[in-house]
Write a structure and sequence with these properties.
alpha/beta; TIM Barrel; 8-stranded parallel beta barrel; globular
């Protein structure tokens, strides 16, 4: 029997298998409101065979968006739009739907990747950005405002409010975004946090504000729903966050009551050399946290696209869950195909059952042609 396709209890949530769709920015919202693109995107993933789907990084305040095209959860219109999407999904799928809540910090006020991925100009609606220290991500990007205690209070409250909105909208889980060089990740890394007060210097001090937000989110999010956190295992640059700091942060989150820990890497400095073309290139970080916090549920992500690779990850105990992203964009039925490849039932929607391995001679040939 495949361990990848066995159930797993994650806090109060029981997942039917170990495959999760990772959050992926779509840069297609208007004023933070998800649009028809999100309806089809999330609807397709909800019938993908994955155990859960996590909505893209969603800003907790307007200043916390990466781009003007990001989704948000700071007002009623955004909450209502997400609630409508989830209500529609519930008419045809019981797949748990989560949302990643985040703040972009110094990497906010930029354009979408296909619009140049650069800092916005004043004539393009640029806004003030915030960070632990007044250090721009790139030389030609905005220099952020160093956050005051009042700024930290505001952001912590914004996370709490967004969590309550996510609950009312019907989300089944929330993931705290503390990775990829965005605000909480900026506090954690000595490369972006040069503060000399209680929020900078030592690893304990650098983790102080991220853990404050994590605790606020834990208090605001219902205990009967799952809560996780995504954070970096490495900055991929000398002098960046150390692995022992990563495992200590994971331990702290677990003690606070986080139901899973999602390990990723990079994004904190522009000059990093990330081996992102290597299969499972981030797996060592998940394995290190799992070894240090064995009672925690740990999720691995990053260039995981072969079903047997995914099976080996969970079977070896390096991680409990496997998140896929681009693999799901390339093949929205990756989980169904992976189940068949590992000798398990595909769990296709009845409307699609005639395309299953046992009923259609052309099964999987589209994926073979892409390979």
């Amino acid at each position: 029997m495949s361990l990848l396709f066995s159930p797993l209890t994650v806090g109060p949530l029981t997942l039917k298998n170990r495959v999760v769709i990772a959050p992926m920015c779509q840069y297609s919202a208007v004023e933070g409101v998800p649009r028809p693109w999100h309806i089809q995107h999330l609807g397709r993933l909800a019938i993908s065979g994955a155990a859960a789907v996590i909505v893209e990084a969603t800003g907790v305040e307007a200043a916390g968006r990466i781009t003007p095209d990001d989704t948000g959860l700071w007002n009623d219109a955004q909450e209502a739009a997400f609630a409508a999407i989830i209500r529609d999904i519930r008419t045809y799928s019981d797949t748990p739907i989560g949302v990643q809540l985040g703040h972009a910090g110094r990497k906010a006020s930029t354009s979408a990747p296909w619009k140049g991925g650069r800092a916005l100009g004043a004539d393009e609606g640029a806004w003030e950005t915030f960070a632990p220290s007044a250090l721009p991500f790139k030389a030609d990007w905005h220099t952020p405002t160093e956050m005051t205690e009042a700024d930290m209070d505001r952001v912590a409250r914004a996370f709490e409010d967004a969590a309550r909105r996510a609950d009312r909208a019907g989300f089944d889980l929330v993931e705290l975004h503390a990775a990829h060089g965005y605000l909480l990740s900026e506090f954690l890394s000595p490369l972006s946090n040069r503060r000399t007060d209680a929020y900078g210097g030592t690893a304990e001090n650098r983790a102080r504000f991220p853990l404050r937000v994590a605790k606020a989110l834990r208090d605001a999010w219902p205990r009967e729903k799952a809560l996780g956190a995504r954070f970096n295992g490495s900055d991929w640059v000398e002098g960046g966050v150390a692995l022992e700091e990563v495992t200590a942060f994971g331990q702290a989150l677990h003690q606070i009551g986080y139901d899973y820990l999602h390990l990723t890497s990079g994004g904190n400095v522009a000059r990093a050399e990330i081996p992102g073309d290597q299969p499972g290139y981030q797996l060592a970080f998940a394995a290190a946290v799992k070894a240090a916090v064995p009672d925690a549920t740990v999720m691995a992500v990053g260039m995981i696209f072969d079903p047997r690779q995914a099976e080996d990850i969970v079977a070896s105990g390096q991680a409990d869950l496997v998140a896929i992203a681009r693999a799901a964009l390339d093949d929205p039925h990756w989980a169904h195909h992976a189940a068949a490849a590992l000798g398990e039932a595909e769990d296709l929607p009845p409307q699609y059952a005639r395309a299953g391995k046992s009923t259609w001679p052309g099964y999987g040939r589209g994926a073979q042609r892409r390979a």
